[in-house]
Amino acid sequence: xxxxxxxxxxxxxxxxxxxxxxxxxxxxxxxxxxxxxxxxxxxxxxxxxxxxxxxxxxxxxxxxxxxxxxxxxxxxxxxxxxxxxxxxxxxxxxxxxxxxxxxxxxxxxxxxxxxxxxxxxxxxxxxxxxxxxxxxxxxxxxxx
Length: 144
Ligand code: DQA
What we know:
This protein is of the alpha/beta class. The chain has one domain (3-115, 130-143): Rossmann fold (3-Layer(aba) Sandwich). 37% of the residues lie in helices and 17% in strands. The chain has 5 helices and 5 strands, in the order E-H-H-E-H-E-H-E-E-H. The chain has helices at 19-22, 27-41, 53-63, 82-89, 129-143, and strands at residues 3-7, 45-49, 69-73, 95-99, 121-124. Strands 2-1-3-4-5 form a 5-stranded parallel β-sheet, with helices on both faces. Helix 2 runs parallel beside helix 5 (129-143) and helix 3 packs parallel to helix 4 (82-89). The model has no long low-confidence stretch (mean pLDDT 97). Bound molecules: 1,3,4-trihydroxy-5-OXO-cyclohexanecarboxylic acid. One of its GO terms (biological process) is chorismate biosynthetic process.
């Protein structure tokens, strides 16, 4: 079963928006790096992005029974979405949360995450390398 890698709003502009915070790599670059690493690790990945909260909720529902684990960068919904938390709570496998930037060094409203109430682990401030680190950890979690 594949690992779902889900990305929230504005991450389609990765590499273009606020590169001083998020870097110059695009989301396509990240998707490619994930698929190369996944192959190395013997994992399948399904890499998805949406600007819509409901689309993310629908993918999390689809992950029930279909995905071995979920890696999610919920972007701004991290700090607002009870709906995404509830959907993740209905998923049976491991969940890892990724933030490209160090949210704890930023505005106070970024310090709280609803998703962290569900995530086995959180990576923040490792840039886009955070996705690769999360994938390695996911390999361990799904191999148990
Ligand atoms: C983010 C951090 C969030 O606070 C922000 O809203 C994002 C991206 C990150 O990857 O650093 O859009 O999740």
